[in-house]
Write a structure and sequence with these properties.
alpha/beta, BirA Bifunctional Protein, domain 2, 8-stranded mixed β-sheet, 3-stranded mixed β-sheet, globular
Length: 221
């Protein structure tokens, strides 16, 4: 049985800056009225780190990658060669009421199934690995996606009064284009392809400029 009855799917046509990618996700969280999947790219090698993380942990990579603090939690995630996606669940959706672990597990099980459909052997972690660093992919938690003993998909999410934002990364280069459609089909009974409206881009730009691109946000911890 699919997680969502209906799903709106956004496949960004153009790579975006790190701040703009965060801004678009937040703008979608503000406005989405149905469950939403967005798959996106980065216009520079980038690195995102969780809301509760310390900038000192990533400062030494400033010259190599565009760095952004996420609104969601979690560890340090490199971007550029990965497949990055977000799922937005409106607060009025039945799935929103489920526990964070149940949502995390169900979404990652869909990722696992889509990977297997594209020839990648994958399982869900059933336990927490010892934490060895702040790098998200060095530490598997329960329901992360593993392949050949290595964590290849992780995520973080956070709730607001309008919904839940789940931001995930699959650290595999060269996944076929059909992977995105396979994931959408596994997540829902039917989906509709959408493009970001000018109004949403305007709102996302404002969020990016006043929040994610500012030193105040980046250096807050």
């Amino acid at each position: 049985m699919s997680i969502f009855g209906a799903l709106e799917v956004y496949q960004d046509k153009f790579p975006q800056s790190a701040a703009m990618n965060m801004g678009i996700d937040e703008a979608l969280l503000e406005t989405a009225t149905v469950a939403t999947l967005r798959v996106y790219q980065w216009d520079h090698a980038a690195l995102s780190f969780g809301y509760f993380g310390s900038y000192a942990e990533v400062a030494n990579q400033q010259s190599e990658r565009e760095i952004v603090r996420r609104w969601t939690g979690g560890g340090i995630v490199p971007h550029g060669d990965d497949l990055t996606y977000s799922v937005i669940i409106p607060a009025n959706h039945l799935f929103f009421a489920r526990s964070s672990l149940a949502i995390y597990s169900d979404l990652h099980d869909a990722v696992r199934e889509a990977l297997q459909a594209n020839g990648v052997a994958a399982i869900l972690a059933n336990s927490v690995s010892p934490k060895v660093s702040e790098n998200c992919f060095a530490n598997a938690v329960r329901a992360d996606v593993l392949s050949e003993g290595r964590k290849i998909a992780g995520a973080a999410h956070r709730r607001s009064r309008t919904g839940l934002l789940h931001q995930g990364s699959i650290q595999l280069a060269g996944l076929p284009a059909k992977f995105n459609d396979d994931l959408a089909r596994i997540l829902c009974d039917r989906f509709e392809r959408k493009t970001l409206s000018p109004q949403l881009i305007t709102r996302a730009t404002a969020i990016a400029q006043t929040k994610y691109a500012t030193a105040e946000w980046l250096l807050r911890r």
